[in-house]
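Handoff note, outgoing to incoming analyst
You'll be picking up this chain. Sequence as last confirmed:
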Amino acid sequence: MKRPSLVSKAAPAAWPWLLAALLLALPLGTGCDSSGGAEEEPVPPGLRVTTVTTGHDLDADGYTLMINGSEEVTIGPNETVTLSQITSGSHQLDLAGVDANCAAESATASVTVTGPTEVTFEVGCTLKGRIAFRCSLGAGLFDLCVMRPDGSERIRLAPGQIQGTPSFSPDGSKIVFSQGTGVIYTIDAGGGEWTLLIQNLGLREAVQPSLSRDGSKIAFSARPIEVETGVYTGTRDIYVANADGANVVNLTNSNDLWYEAPTWSPDGTQLAFVGLSAPDENSIDDEWGDLYVLNADGTNLRNITAGTPQASLVGWGVPSWSPVDSRIAFTAAPSREDRYRIFGVYMIDANGASLTRLTNNQEQGAHASWRPDGEWLVFSGDAPDANPEGGYCDKGGTIAVMRPDGSEKQFITDCSLPSSHAEQSPSWSLGEGS
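Most recent structure output, in case you need it:
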């Protein structure tokens, strides 16, 4: 027998004469059972249940409302439903199907229905996913850490000498990172043993690994070296390999510029990276350059910032290509003289157009990285209230998120813990890890 729906729906209006006939046909004893007791009847208009969900990344599919542990009703994140067939008496309501980034103030409600009754479930949601980043206790040594985008559930995955920005696999289950003298590893996003990916005896300083969006390729920068003598035989170039570390190929083969910090286009056909002009490895004064784009087969190298009003504004810019379009976020300064005093997150199109600054002088901003859906950026900067009394923060050592137009900035760390001397080079995944 089909069970009547708990959710009320409007019924067609009855003709007046039919309604009168039905009333005349009712026996006088209607409303009482054979023993003379009152029958249990639905309480019009029933029980009204409302969900109120606030925050970010609300679940568009909504939740499941369980009635007395058996009946199920789907309810949206901000919706009211009327349970018209609820009878008088005590009932238990449970709100299920709440996403991991959301939490109900109370997911269970016990109600006694004696007439029209209302119940409200309040749910708060934070941004989805995980953020991997370099965290430091000082002395220039960085560990690999992971946290939620609201700064909670922070854990250390790998200790010591982590270099560059870590890179998540497409499903968020793995993190690729470089360590020490430039060896590239992968690790489960939930922790565990390291797996060696890149350790080529003919290359040194293999750093800043970047996985393609489909997870099939890894790009990184490195320098060729003569193994027997330990002498470098070239400048830093951009290399590409299979995701398992096989088939390493030099894409740039430069003899004058230093190329570093590659990032993939959404379709995997292009790479963007920084090019430094004749750097002196003994002087930071020469860490200055431009932003370049190259086809993934090594052809069509072009400088996309040379024609901007702020020529040579990139420096150690660590670009990040949007996962959904042609925009590239990167670090820059208004002038060469200001590059270690005033720097920020900028945006530019891959064709060199539409240069825009997203952060101000107080916020600073560096190492911006896109969320995989293109809705948010995460970066390291200076929180307005960073370094509280007893704080340990370096310049640019707090992590923040913002929209791609620079709005809705939220600093999610504040250097209030001894374990947060500097927090830099973040990367965002929408996966929950393993």
